[in-house]
Structures are given as C-alpha cells and as structure tokens.
Write a structure and sequence with these properties.
alpha/beta; seven-stranded parallel beta sheet; six-stranded parallel beta sheet; 47 helices; 29 strands; about 55% helix; about 15% strand
C-alpha cells in the first residue's frame, strides 16, 4: 500500500537546496520521513556513502539501517528503469556499512583516521562509561592523596568548607561532567571564576544578574496578577478597597517598568508599601485577603533577599573566590591524572571521543575533507544534542546540506547535558528564514485517538509557554488527529482519577495500583482492540497496558506486587532490562556469594535458584530452627545437625561454595566464570527455558564484560569486577535483556517509555512531589550564567545573589523539563489514557486549582504534576477528575502502627518472611512466570496459626512445632516393627528411638502428638499403606511444568515446581497420596479438607510427571480429628 504523506511531510521530503529543521511532534512519523527522504535522494542519484546519519542510540542506528535498506529495495522493485533499479539495489546492499551511527561512533571514525594528529596510540581502545567512571574515581583519589601528602593549605580549607570528602568529591565529579559537555571546558571555568573579581555596576551588568532581575520581575508580575484576581472579587460598592488595591497594583507596575539593573529595582522595591487593608462598613472578603497576602509574600521575600545583599555581594564573592579557585584547581588535577591513566592503558572515554574529534576538526584539512565527503547530513533526535556535539556537526556542515529532526517537547535528558535550547535557537533561526534554511512543523499525530490528543492539547496549551517552559505550545506545536483516529471507538477516551494521599508513599502507590487494577479488570472484560490496517479485532491483553511513573525505582515493585495480588501479571523495568533479567540477577548473586559467603541476600538468592534448589519453605525452616546472626551460620549449624532433613543439602551447598572459592584463586576471572556457568549447569538450565538462546546471550555478555574489564584495568579479582558491575547497573549502560514479549502489564518510568507506544497508558503517581534537589547543591552550574557556590567560611555560610540567580534558573529549567516528561508520558497512549494521582490534602489542592490562572510563575513553581492537571480539569470537561475515597482502596494497616507491634498470627509472619526471603525473577518473556515456584507459594495456603512470632518462641508448645514434629515422626517410623494392638506404645518407643539416633531433637519429641499419630496408625487407610509394596515418605520433587497448568497465565514457559509429598504408596499400580495436617479444625471436616484440595492436585501432577504412574486417590489426613478425607 502506497504511503500517503501529509502536506508538511511532503515538504520535508521534497525541498532541496536548503537546510531543514523538522519539528516533529509525538507520533508524527518523523523516522519514516527521515528514512524516506534518504531513499528518495538515493533514487535521484545521491550516493549512500556520501550521506551521514547521526542517531541517538545504537538501537536507533540498527533500526535506521534496516529501514533504509528495506525502502531502497522497495524503491528498486518499483523502478522501471533497469539501470536505476540496479543502482538502488547496490545502495541497499551498502546500507549496513553506511555512515549511520551514534555521534560517538562518528567521533571514533574521525579519531581513528587522525590519531597521529592527536598524539594517540593507533591501537587505542574505547572505554565504556562504567570503566571510565571507575578510572575517574581512581584519579580523584590519587589527586586527593597527593594534596594530602603535600599538606596543601587551599585544598584542606576547601575540604573544611565542604565539611567532608564525600560532598567535595561528589561536587568535583559533577563539575567535571558538566565541563566535558562544553566545547571549551577550561575557558568556561576561567570565565566563571573571573566574575568573582568584579565589583559595582560592572558586576550588576553581567548576564547572571540581569537573569536574576528578569526572574524578580516575573515574580512581581505574579503579585500583580494576584492583586488583580482579588480586585475582581470586590463588588463595585467597595470603593475604598478597590482604590487601595489599584494603588498597590500601580506601585508594582512601576517596579517592573524596565529597571536597568538590580540596584534600580531595589530602589523601587523600597517604595512598594502594603498598608493595612481596612473593611470599615463592609463585610470582610477572606479570599481577597488571602490573595493579597500571597502577593505581599512574594514582594517581601524579594526585599529580604536584596536588602543589604547588593552592597555586600562583591565582598561575599571575593570571600568565596579562593574556595572556587581551589575547587577548579582540584578538578584540573583530577583530569590530568585521569588523562595519564587513560594514556597508560591506551583507552579513551566518551567525552574524549567528542573533544578529540573536535580537536581533529580544528585542523582545516581534516574539516575540509569531511565537508567534501558528505553531501547530506541528517541528525535524528536533535533536541537531545549537547553544545559540543553541535560544534562537531557545525565543523563539517555546508550551508544547505543539513536535515535536523526532533521534538523539543520530548527533550528529557538534561541530566545527560542535553541542551534543548539548541533546538529552540535553531528553530527560531530557521523560522526567520535565514539563508538557505527553513523550518517545517510535523504535528499530524498518527498514533493517538482524538480524545487523547484533545486532552494533551488542553493541558499543554495552558502550561507550556515561552516564559514557563522555554517554548510556546502554539498552533505549530499542537497535535492534530489523523482522520482514521477520529473514527468512533469505544476504547478511546481519557480518565482522570484522584484519591487522597497516605502518609507513606508506598501505601499511596498501592492505593493507586489497586485503582489501576480495578480499571484494567473492567476494561479487559469488554475492551476490544481493532487493528487499523487489517481491520481485525481482538480482546484486550495485559500487554496492551503500560503503567508509566515519573520515577519507577521507589515504588515500581509495590505496583507490581499489588497488581499481582489482584490477579494481574506485571513486569517492572528498572534498569533497562539487562539487570532485570532472571539469569543475570541470579548469576550476579552467586558471584557476590562467592566473594563473601556471609552476605544474606546473595546467599538467599542463590539458594532459591536452580543452582542449589532450595524452596521458600526450606529457608523458613532454617530461619525458625536455628538462632544465628546470618543465614550462612544457619547453614553451618544445619550441616552439623545430622537429624535435620536439610543437613545433607546444607553440606552440599557449603562444599560447592568452598570448591568454587578455591577455583577462583587459581583461574583468571573470565575463565572462572565460564567454569562456574558450566559446572553448576546454570548455562544449560537457562538455555532450556523459553527464549533460551537470548538468555544465554545475556550470560555471554556478562562473560565479555569480565574479559573487557580484565584487559582494561589489568585486574581480575572478583570484588573489583562486582564493583564494576554495580557501577554499570547504577548507570544502566548495558543494553536491554533479550527476552521475548509476554502478556504482562509493563511498569516503567516515563523516561524509559520514550519512543514506545501502548494501546492503553496509565500515567500514575501524578501527586508525587517533583524532584528539586539539584537546586540545593553546594555548587550550581549554568552554561550561560556561570558557577554559584555556597560554602562555609569559618562558622558562617554566605549566600550570594549569584548563586540565587543560578538556583532560580536551574529550578525553571527543571520545571520545563518536568513538563516535557509529562508530555512524553501522556503522548505514549494510542487509544486510552488514564491519569491517576493521590494527594494528602485533596480539598486544599482542589480549591487551589479552581483559583489557579496557570500563570508562568505558577507553572514554574508547581509542586507536582497535579498542580498543572487539576486547573485544566476545571476548564476542560473531558478531563474532569473523578474523586475516590481512600477507604475504597486502602486495606493495609493504618500508618500510625509501628514495626514493634506483635504479629497477630503466623500467617502474617510467614507472609512477611516470604516477602523478605523470596527472589523475584522479572524478565520480558514472562514477567509473571518465574523459573521456579514451590507448591505453597502457588497456593498461598493458610498456615497454622500462632499468637507468638516464631523468632521469639523458646520452649513454648505451638501448633507450628507440633506440625513439624508430627511430620518428622511420621516420616521416620519403622513400620516393620509396628504392633497393631498397641499403637500408642509403638509410637512412644519410636519417638525415643528417633531422639537417641539424633533424627529429631528432645524439643521435637516433646511436641510430637503421639496419640494422634497412633490414632492414624489404627485407621483403615494406614492398614492399606502398611500392605503396600512401595511406600514413599517425605518425597521431594522438582519437575518442570508449563506455567499455564500452575497459574492463571497464557504463558507456556516451563516453571520448576518444587515441593515435598508427605506420603504416597502404590495400590494396584496406582498411587494413593496422603497429606498430613495437624491444624485445629473448627469447621465441617469436608470443608477443612477441601481447603487443601488444590495443593494435593499439584502434588498429584508432580507425582505423575515424576513416576509416569497415575494417582488414584488423594487424602487429607486430619490428625487432630483422627480421620482422613478424600479430596
């Protein structure tokens, strides 16, 4: 089917002889346009080898190459001129080798061809970000040690001013990271320091103080708006009050009337007086007073900041200057040492790639060669470029060969030094129709339904302005709905839900998750998704839903657990996928365990893995049976307790750990890891699972990391490698795990969702306070303003207006970025968008929203996304919020309860223990399908109740102890010695024997229910058991079974089912299965037995699978009632 392009897309495809910047809104098909333009250029005779395409990620590079290749082949097939068709096919073959890459890869291309100009060893190797971070830390420590040894006074004073090493080192690393994004980092440093030497009018004329003046004027304008809003509430007969407010508005209008500098502004500020507003003879209108107080508060705060500060600003800067000089000097020393370490190892890092490429391009010959080489330059995701990256592109561009495409509304990587101002500047320049340049806006959205698009436009047309967000959401920015998405669709729509906020964020997240789960269930019942191209409809799947959070890490697992509790499979993506994959998590836990066997969490994780095969029940057993400070000590105690059923397993674990630790000392790291994967069988086990090859590829990638680490750092000890991998996880530098898609709800951050789309999107956590911590740092940096610092001098911390100016600029940039993050989140939805937020003071927030004008000042000072969304909801009917009571979703203990409160029953204890001891295996193929599960976990069966937590029990007789003792005795009775006429004596003598032989303890003997066991032995069922030729007791099993036979899921991925069957015996070639229960029974026996029917059904499946023999009967033996019930 031939692609139908919009008028704007056609312009982007056809205009030649000009450089273009394409502002492509969400879902507007920018990637299709970019690749189509390249294909058309090639069809007209351009050579792919003379086209440079810069992408943002490696994944985008691979996708772009495939797309261009496919389009060239398609063009060749449609071509009627044989010679042209042949040339297009040749171009398609070349696509894999074309200059389509990330900017860093292109920089490497430049460096490798000009290494001799840069003084580099031709055999240099790139260093990844993790390796670079670790080497940089080493350089920092070496620089600090040298200064310590030299007793450098300036450094020691700097250390005292920062009040410790950690804040100083963190600041130094942050400063260097910022500098490396600048084209001339050390020049920027010098220029920033020079500001600290200026005085008087020369100082106040600097851009940084003009920036502060502009901000103060903006705040004053907000005060004017507040007073005007109050004035509108006054009836006409309130003449005195109206006159009073008019006078104050007039004073503020004069205050903001083009003041030349802060000094003049302060002079005018002194003339602004807020005299008492009297209400003689009139009823007081409290809302007017509140608005006026807010206006006064803004002005009074400015007066407090400026009074006296202007006179002492130069003096304070002079006092801070020595510290700033010392800090800058320290960073230079760190950088020098870091450069020497890299040179010694023959490596360069990512920032080196950019700076070395720029150095090479400073050579006229190099720049000229590349200018002549490329006839066309395409830059994708241009909004995420930094200043140094812009300098590199500018060095090789021609006047009319640029094609820049992106969407500044989706620029959300400022923390990576991306500068959205670049795109805005270029867009304004090209819109002014500078020579040989043009701007094109693509705002036809092909992704989202009309209700979703209308909601997005309603929100961002009100909050995104030049003043508040660095850009205006105007007619060019507003999304337009494609005709096919305007068709009636029951699934299309927007919802806005509000619930009251709990004291605890995690509880609030659970309430929101329950609300989301309720809506997911409701939509799944009736929702139908229609494929626009095929016209085929199908019911909704879980994978059609995505839950987007501003920041996933704090609460994403609470979301996933809550959804799972409500029967919804969910997958949490926290680290880009790779470190979330089950195989990587388990293997890293095993490595941490080998590094230090006394780490409980890695030990528990490894024990629960297929490597050692323990179950959650086993871990609870170890926890309750042995008192020790760590699980490793419990394993040692269990190993020496020959009577314990886990003693042999514990011994095997300890022996294997000891063996592998010895091997670790003898082998290079990468060889040892390969040996570990092989000898534990873990590699083969993973390969047998669904998507096994992809999973093994993740383990192969880990082995490669180990080899690279050893080569780059000359180290092969396990501890250092684990530190390296922890750094990698924190920076999310390793690519996503390769696992197949599963029918699960995805829970991820709005950042991680960029570039993705889902039929139904739930944007949640909208009431969470926006993060503004970066504005509170001791050192603040801004590209155009400089560096602001606040350090302790003696016993005083001096605040400067310079730092205040940068702080306000940083806060405004942060607010603008948060708007763009919300835009990204909302624009992921194809059919339906759900917005969910919770707040502690709902009524106050609603009242504030009703009165909000969404002025630039209000938008910049929003505390949460709700401060933007709620005011819009009162203007835009389709976004009207539905308010829910907290009690509707809150079924957790009240926030006032403490951890010290006694646990009411053993069920709660076991659930708490299981929550701490269980290991989650999230992966894309089957997020709700773990690789291993015990029967008890699948069932979540009711446990024996106990009023006292197990970990504080001593010699007390408890149902739990009676149960353990009963099972231990029944498992070890010597049936051949049984005298049927005296069951009680037999059981007593057997208990004594078991104690003497060390099989059970004296405490267990005292807890054993002798009479109940004897009663069972006298039963007809026991007589059948004694006649059997084959009896199995405490039969442990581990069998792989399809997930859909064990739980509610469509996945057929094999799950390792583990458990222990109390007793089974053969009768007429079929199994009879028994399960002993010592619970006190307070209901009908049939009902009590039926509670365990599902458990026995799973045991039956496992037993049949294990022995290939059928199960004829299943009995629940209720020992306390001296009866057995068939289920």
């Amino acid at each position: 089917m031939k692609m139908k392009w919009t008028e704007q897309q056609q312009q982007a495809l056809e205009i030649e002889g000009e450089s273009l910047i394409v502002s492509a809104a969400a879902g507007s098909g920018k990637t299709a346009v970019l690749s189509e333009r390249i294909s058309r250029l090639c069809a007209k005779g351009a050579e792919l080898s003379r086209i440079l395409v810069v992408t943002f990620t490696e994944a985008a590079t691979a996708q772009m190459k495939l797309r261009i290749e496919a389009q060239l082949y398609k063009a060749a097939e449609a071509e009627t001129v044989p010679e042209t068709a042949r040339r297009l096919r040749a171009q398609a073959l070349y696509a894999g080798r074309a200059h389509i890459s990330t900017l860093h890869k292109f920089c490497l291309y430049i460096i490798k061809r000009n290494y001799y100009l840069l003084g580099l060893d031709p055999a240099f190797k790139p260093l990844d970000n993790i390796g670079g971070s670790m080497l940089l830390l080493e350089a920092l420590k070496l620089a600090a040690e040298a200064l310590y040894e030299a007793s450098d006074t300036a450094f020691l004073e700097l250390l005292a001013a920062f009040e410790g090493e950690e804040p100083l080192f963190k600041t130094a690393l942050g400063l260097r990271s910022f500098l490396m994004s600048q084209p001339a980092p050390w020049d920027w440093l010098d220029n920033s320091l020079n500001l600290y030497s200026l005085e008087g009018t020369e100082l106040l004329a600097q851009p940084i103080y003009q920036s502060l003046l502009k901000e103060y004027c903006s705040q004053a304008n907000q005060s004017i708006d507040l007073l005007k809003a109050g004035r509108e509430l006054l009836p006409q007969e309130y003449t005195a009050q109206l006159s009073h407010l008019d006078n104050e508005i007039m004073l503020l209008n004069y205050l903001v009337l083009e003041p030349k500098d802060l000094s003049q502004y302060l002079s005018r500020l002194h003339g602004v007086k807020f005299n008492s507003l009297t209400w003689r003879g009139r009823s007081k209108i409290q809302r007017v007073c509140d608005l006026r107080d807010a206006a006064k508060g803004i002005i009074n705060k400015q007066r407090e900041k400026l009074d006296g500060a202007l006179k002492t600003e130069a003096e304070k800067l002079a006092m801070q200057k020595p510290h700033l000089e010392a800090l800058f000097s320290f960073v230079r020393q760190v950088d020098d040492i870091y450069s020497a370490l890299k040179k010694e190892r023959g490596v360069i890092d990512f920032s080196d790639m950019e700076h070395l490429a720029l150095r090479a391009l400073a050579d006229v010959g190099v720049a000229s060669t590349l200018k002549n080489k490329f006839d066309y330059i395409f830059v994708d995701e241009y909004q995420d470029s930094s200043r140094i990256q812009e300098s590199i592109i500018n060095a090789i561009r021609k006047d009319s060969n640029m094609f820049l495409v992106g969407d500044v509304k989706q620029s959300i990587y400022r923390f990576r030094q991306a500068d959205p101002g670049l795109f805005i500047e270029k867009l304004e320049e090209f819109e002014a129709q500078a020579k040989n340049s043009r701007a094109i806006h693509l705002n036809m959205n092909f992704r989202s339904s009309e209700p979703v698009i209308d909601a997005i436009n309603a929100v961002f047309s009100r909050i995104m302005s030049k003043e508040a967000a660095e850009l205006a959401y105007d007619e060019n920015a507003a999304l337009k709905c494609a005709e096919f998405n305007k068709e009636a669709d029951a699934l299309a729509g927007v919802e806005f839900h509000l619930i009251e906020f709990s004291e605890f964020e995690a509880v609030s997240a659970k309430m929101e998750a329950r609300l989301a789960a309720k809506r997911i269930h409701e939509l799944m019942k009736t929702g139908v998704l229609c494929n626009r191209l095929s016209g085929i409809s199908r019911p909704l799947r879980y994978s059609d839903f995505a839950i987007l959070l501003r920041s996933a890490k704090p609460v994403a697992l609470d979301w996933a657990q809550t959804l799972a509790d409500m029967g919804i499979p969910a997958y949490v993506q926290l680290t880009g996928g790779y470190f979330d994959s089950m195989e990587v998590k388990v293997f890293l836990s095993l490595l941490r365990l080998l590094d230090n066997r006394r780490q409980d969490i890695p030990l528990l994780s490894a024990l629960l893995s297929p490597v050692f095969g323990f179950s959650e029940a086993d871990l609870i057993e170890l926890k309750t049976c042995y008192t020790a400070s760590s699980f490793f000590e419990r394993l040692m105690l269990c190993e020496n307790d020959a009577a314990h059923p886990l003693a042999l397993s514990a011994k095997k674990v300890l022996n294997r750990l000891g063996y592998f630790q010895r091997e670790l000392q003898l082998l290079p790291l990468s060889e040892f890891l390969a040996k570990l994967l092989d000898e534990t069988g873990f590699y083969n086990c993973i390969g047998a699972l669904t998507n096994g090859r992809e999973r093994q590829a993740n383990l192969d990638a880990l082995l490669k990391r180990a080899r690279d680490y050893s080569e780059n750092f000359g180290e092969s000890d396990l501890w250092s490698f684990l530190q390296y991998m922890e750094e990698a996880e924190s920076k999310v530098e390793i690519g996503p795990a390769q696992a197949g898609a599963a029918d699960v709800v995805r829970v991820l951050s709005m950042h991680a969702a960029k570039g993705l789309e889902f039929p139904i999107v739930i944007c949640a956590g909208l009431g969470k306070e926006l993060n503004k911590t970066d504005s509170k740092e001791k050192l603040l940096l801004e590209r155009t303003l400089g560096a602001g610092i606040k350090l302790r001098i003696g016993s005083v911390k001096y605040e400067t207006l310079m730092k205040e100016a940068i702080k306000l600029s940083v806060l405004n940039q942060r607010a603008a970025e948060e708007m763009r993050v919300l835009y990204v989140g909302m624009s992921r939805a194809q059919k339906r968008l759900l917005l969910i937020g919770s707040t502690k003071k709902l009524e106050a927030l609603i009242e504030k929203a009703q009165q909000s004008k969404l002025s630039p000042y209000e938008c910049q000072n929003a505390k949460s996304f709700l401060d933007w969304l709620l005011p819009v909801s009162f203007e835009y009917e389709e976004l009207k919020a539905k308010v829910h009571s907290a009690s509707e979703f809150l079924d957790t203990p009240a926030p006032g309860k403490t951890l010290a409160e006694p646990i009411k029953n053993e069920q709660a204890l076991l659930e708490a223990l299981k929550a701490h001891l269980s290991w989650q295996y999230p992966h894309e193929a089957a997020a709700l399908t773990p690789s291993k599960r015990s029967v008890s976990e699948l069932l979540q069966t009711k446990r024996i109740e106990s009023a006292v937590p197990l970990f504080v029990e001593t010699s007390m007789q408890t149902p739990k102890k009676r149960g353990i003792a009963a099972h231990a005795v029944l498992a070890n009775l010597n049936f051949s010695a049984y005298n049927r006429q005296n069951a009680d004596c037999f059981v007593k003598s057997e208990v004594e024997r078991l104690v003497n032989e060390g099989i059970i303890s004296k405490a267990q003997a005292e807890s054993a229910p002798v009479q109940e066991i004897a009663g069972f032995l006298r039963s007809g069922l026991a007589q059948r058991l004694l006649k059997s030729q084959r009896v199995e007791r405490e039969l442990e099993f581990s069998v792989y079974m399809p997930a859909n036979t064990l739980m509610q899921t469509e996945s057929t991925e094999p799950v390792l089912l583990q458990g222990v069957i109390d007793c089974c015996f053969l009768e007429n070639g079929k199994w009879v299965l028994l399960d002993y229960k010592t619970d006190a029974v307070y209901k009908a026996l049939e009902d009590a037995a039926q509670e365990h029917a599902k458990q026995l059904e799973l045991y039956s499946k496992a037993l049949s699978e294990l022995t290939k023999l059928p199960v004829a009967k299943r009995y629940v033996v209720l020992l306390s009632k001296d009866t057995a019930v068939a289920v």
